[in-house]
Amino acid sequence: MKYKRILLKLSGESLMGEQEYGISPEMLTQYAEEIKNAKNKGAEIAVVIGGGNIFRGLQGAAKGMDRVQGDYMGMLATVINSMALQAELEKQGVETELLSGLAIEPICKESSGKRIKSAVKAGKVVLIGGGTGNPYFTTDTASSLRAIEMQADVILKGTRVDGIYTADPEKNPDATKYDSLTYTEALSKQLKIMDLTAFALCQENRMPIYVFDMNKKGNLLKVIEGEHIGTIVSE
Predict the structure, then answer these.
(1) Average of per-residue pLDDT across 200-208
(2) What is the pTM of this model?
(3) Which domains does the chain have, with CATH numbers?
(4) Residues near 198 by Cβ (< 8 Å), separated by ≥ 6?
(5) pLDDT value of residue 192
(6) For residue 153, what pLDDT is reported?
(7) pLDDT at res. 57
(8) How far is CA 204 from the centre of its chain?
(9) What torsion, rounded to 10 degrees, do the Cα atoms 222, 154, 96, 212 define?
(10) With pLDDT > 70 as the criterion, what percentage of the chain qualifies?
(11) Cβ–Cβ < 8 Å for 143, 82
(12) Sorting pLDDT into bands at 50, 70 and 90, what band is 168?
């Protein structure tokens, strides 16, 4: 196994499936199956999910809402998504632990590196909601922070495309895929893999970022076993 301890980052939008908003039961089932299969192979897994399928703080701020209030609402949306995936994983017989950047008793305890490491070592899949617990930070930044805290081998960023391209492949058919990039190359080419705060955290702490297509069945297992099907960003 190439990657033993992983932080899997999923977007909230990915949970919508074919819907325009909310949570698709079909996508929950598919993602839970992928995570279960990877765990059964011995991977230690923590998952951070965005909240864009329910609410985005920045969009609220753009419409006149207080930014801080909007960001906290977005954090709560990530907790809802995490609870949904937790419920599906438990339904499939996977033991889980729900943590959050915001302590919400009796739903979950506050996240910490020690708690994440303890839970994954015990064989649980850890769902981490609530972002960083602070406004003005994205779930990308939360993913970077949690990966560093838990001493993950890699951040696996599951998307609906199979890696990083020179341009958006859904809009530009001539876009070409990168097999690998350094942090410096990604910055110089202005490739928007993560927001700058998240990316800087990864670069400073030498945390590799692997971008791959999470919607294709079996891909998560392929990545952790070392099959190169996406794009790796590292030193």
Answers:
(1) 97
(2) 0.95
(3) 5-234 (3.40.1160.10)
(4) 138, 140, 141, 143, 144
(5) 86
(6) 98
(7) 65
(8) 19
(9) -40
(10) 98
(11) no
(12) confident
Pairing of strands 177-178, 164-165: antiparallel
Residue type for position 148: I
- What pLDDT digit, counting tens, does each position of 32-89 carry? 999 999 999 999 999 999 999 998 766 766 788 899 999 999 999 999 999 999 999 9
Answer for the pair 154, 233: CB distance below 8 angstroms, yes or no: no
Q: Which two tokens stand for residue 148?
A: 């560093």
Residue 6 has pLDDT above 80, yes or no: yes
Over the Cα atoms of the chain, what is R_g?
17
Taken in order 25, 27, 31, 37, the sign of the CA dihedral is positive
User: What separation in angstroms does the CA of 233 have from each of 19, 173, 196?
Assistant: 31, 23, 14
In angstroms, rounded to a whole number, what is the distance separating the alpha carbons of residues 41 and 18?
30
For residue 83, what are the CA distances in angstroms to 70, 103, 139?
20, 14, 16
CB 196 within 8 A of CB 144: no
What pLDDT, on a 0 to 100 scale, did the predictor assign at position 61?
Answer: 66
Mean pLDDT over 155-177 rounds to: 93
Long-range contacts of 53-56 (CB under 8 A, 24+ apart): 53/12, 53/13, 53/15, 53/16, 53/21, 53/22, 53/23, 53/77, 53/81, 54/12, 54/21, 54/22, 54/80, 54/81
Phi, psi of 168 (to 5 degrees): -65, 110
Query: How far apart are alpha carbons 42 and 156 in whole angstroms?
Result: 16
**Cross-strand pairs, 9:** 48, 157
Residue type, 214: M
